[in-house]
Amino acid sequence: MYKHTVGHTVYKFNSLADLMAKATPLRSGDQLAGIAARSYQERVAAQMALAELPLSVFLEEHLIPYNQDEITRLIIDTHDKANFKTISHLTIGDFRNFLLDNTTTKEVLTSLQKAITPEMAAAVCKIMSIQDLILVSAKCEVITSFRTTIGLEGRLATRLQPNHPTDDVKGILASVVDGIFNGSGDAVIGINPATDNVANQIQLLQVLEDVRTRYEIPTQICVLSHITNTILAIEQGAPVDLVFQSIGGTEKTNSSFGINLSMLKEGKEAAVSLNRGTVGNNVMYFETGQGSSLSANAHHNIDQQTLEARAYAVARAFDPLLVNTVVGFIGPEYLYDSKQIIRAGLEDHFCGKLMGLPMGCDVCYTNHAEADQDDMDVLMTLLSTAGCNFIMGIPGADDIMLNYQSTSFHDALYIRQLLGLRPAPEFEEWLIKSGIMNKNLQLTQLDLSNKLLNIVS
Amino acid sequence: MKKDPWYNLKQYTNARIAIGHSGASLPTSELLKFRMAHSLAKDAIYSEIDTPQLTADLLNSSIKSVVVKSNAFERKDYLLRPDKGRLLDQESINKLQFAVKEPVDLCIIIADGLSANAVNTHSVKLINYLLPLLKDWTLSPLILAKQGRVALSDSIGQILKAQISLLLIGERPGLSSPDSMGAYITYQPQQGNTDEKRNCVSNIQSDGLSYEVAALKIAYLLQQMRTKQISGVLLKDDYDNNIFQIDGKKY
Asked: Measured between CB atoms, which of B25, B114, B176 is closest to A414?
């Protein structure tokens, strides 16, 4: 039982999970689950109570019991106790002050990555303002690599997402060409297939592999299928760079996705054994998003932001190249409007970075959420100032297969120009060599004899 | 403004490729084109099912209808609380219980879903193609439902003692398809059914599946369900590989 008194009102919270849920900024998903604060005052009272708790409370009181959930076991068993000593005396309120302190440098934050459990990250996140989230995220550095190096200071990568409603090869390649000529694709060229089966996955992988090798494009390719399909594709000799999987923050959520930790391990080992990376061998690509556990009826009455942070504990056990929070895809019953989507995107990026993950964000919304492209401009701009590793690149921001709106190739050009951000170094060099960008990283007037124009034929 | 040199690739995809630049950004025409597409999708979300017009159009085809409402009292409530859109309000339950007589083979429901525009435009036209294919079926009065989600068809079908429910509902609008309608068919509709028990014919719209083909597909699925007494994932949707017969006529 946790309590906080405001004037004559005593607010009581009957568990740590309840306190966390009441302290979290307003989310329609937490209201749908019936666990959100019932008043504005109750929310801040919960934040005040939370701020007074020691960080170590999360090592003693597990939000989901240790014997019931393999993610709780993963979190507790891999906790970096040695480095935790630096911060073990802090309350959650103190921890916020510590993170913002000028002496808490990039190096300090790097040393603490595995000493911070997802619940600690989620708790401090709940009491931080948006500018706090941006400032601390910007201090974190997480660099990963495969054929490109992602996460370096002053760089912003993009996933080129060339989806097509019927997986038509020419349709997909047309979008690949459009993306490449706009300087996009250094995080990955990744297709969400309309049909998720192994044969289709292998065919699409071969199409991308052919383009990649023929034009010597330094990037990685991916067809975002279920991990069991990707393992089969590897067994059948398909050119698999990255193993993709959607993950959640409870064992039950992952069961609903048809996965568990040992399957993720198997997938990673299969891809690592192919040894296809050139500058590194981070082979996993994970996607997450607040609300997935409630959607799978697997939330244990824990708020969606905390569960999202727990998904990052899953991700970091497998040294991913990319972790992408698909923030606005889930719909208004979880994130109602742009206010909720924008804050959720910054929270996810902050928690992931603090825990040592290469965070990117699918800055996106569906048409039944109260949001539009202006709101995506805001979130993309804020995330880029926070040092986000990558965003999506989709023709005109309009995904014609998944029927939602994200960020466009043009958006990436805008934000790179505004903030002086550059593509991944290997990709940047190739863009200049191929005559797509000049040395000032502006698009050139493409030479009509450029052999890249023949990709589709 | 100069066209992008890869402009000819537009023939291969409806994606917004080769749309040019102003500096690094979108040209004005493309910015406004996108906004127009989004505005249609937003308007579709907030459009309302036109029950007087639909009732009149159905009567023209000699079909009686009853108007009901879900537990979601307005659009924001509907968007925030999917559970409410799956249940009827008490007044509607009473109304249907009063209307129900004998068990029927099929109840047809038209619900707004996420695009009332879609059903306002397409539902009656589809029904006019479908009913001639269902001559040996007994039907309940047609139900027009406000603020309805897919699972509302379970609540309605159960009260009407229908063996199968067919729901026509507005799909979530995309930028290129603000008025697309879907058809969900469930054998033994009852509360608590999950989506695995349903078969779906989607993308019924002017640039998608035609009324005629959609009606044939739906009639085929209905026939299969009645014969095999199953629906959903258990029922293989092999319409495309089969001919089937209605009234001795082959399709």
From this structure: B25
